[in-house]
Amino acid sequence: MDYxxxxxxxxxxxxxxxxxxxxxxxxxxxxxxxxxxxEGFLLLAETPVLCTDRRFEVEAREQxxxxxxxxxxxxxxxxxxxxxxxAALPRVGFEPDSLTWAQHTRVAEALPEAELxxxxxxxxxxxxxxxxxEIALIAQAAALADRALxxxxxxxxxxxxxxxxxxxxxxxxxxxxxxGVSFAPIVAGGPHSxxxxxxxxxxxxxxxxxxxxxxxxxxxxxxxxxxxTVVVGDPPGEFAERYGAVRRAQEAGIAALAAGRSGAKVDRxxxxxxxxxxxxxxxxxxxxxxVGLEVHEGPTLSRLSTATLEAGxxxxxxxxxxxxxxxxxxxxxxxxxxxxxARQLTAAxxx
Length: 351
Ligand code: ZN
Ligand code: ZN
Description:
Elements: H1 3-15, E1 22-24, H2 27-34, E2 41-44, E3 49-51, H3 57-63, E4 68-70, H4 76-87, E5 91-94, H5 101-110, E6 115-118, H6 122-127, H7 132-152, H8 162-176, E7 180-181, E8 186-189, E9 210-215, E10 217-219, E11 222-223, E12 226-231, H9 239-256, H10 263-276, E13 288-290, E14 297-301, E15 314-317, E16 320-323, E17 327-330, E18 333-337, E19 342-344
Bound molecules: zinc ion (2 copies).
The site of one zinc ion (ZN) has 4 residues, from loops.
């Protein structure tokens, strides 16, 4: 990964508000800008300073090439303050989404001469367009999840509980070489399938259950995300029609993916299909979201989205319908937006 290039682009973005430095406090942003996987903060400046502690000193020196490493016996905030003092910075930006009120107070008190400026979502904006290496890791995570799902499907039988199945998926992923799951697996059987984000239970699957499987793997810090809906035994009434409508909605959403297209428009394309099928009300969430170091990040595909897709974005397309008492259906795949169209990263078969 080109961490120095990312730091250069971040500093360039800060030149707009005329800031020479940024206090990077979001843990994933420290990793994104340095490669460092331990705990600490980064003073992003011409000479970047990684502020960690003795526990992570070895990793910091190994991983954060091009950064000065500071690992004194003090809190990460204190060492960040010391780095700002050392660099004699008159103005410094901070990340308002991750610097806590208590930390901000300490920094402001310790640096009465320095102006602290909130600069929201600078690094988030850089993360939107993935580099080829990032896309390769996401694709690898998606492929491992595809394989673990394939191993899981024969185990979906009456008597197996949601927790047992989630554990089996996790085990397959770890054995296949993933770092782990990218989020707690969702295995939602029967009535639970009507909950878009169901929590795992000890309920055993029964004949006739719809099962929503929302699963992801993590590789090199990068996430994948995919959902499949299957049925144990005989499907409940109207399953085939409703599944077909969700499938057609997903196809319409996928066909709408293009660089330059707004996130709201892609959502619209899929939503119209479900509205025409009389299921618009049951599609109770946005169509998709970005995936990267976080399983939910920008850009968003929804009615409220203000994003415009760009080549290098990685997004899900996941229409779903939820009918209390009957069950739910969601189908989710992962795509990378390219100059011409979109390339699918998930490959598990659908009904
Ligand atoms: Zn998902
Ligand atoms: Zn998702």
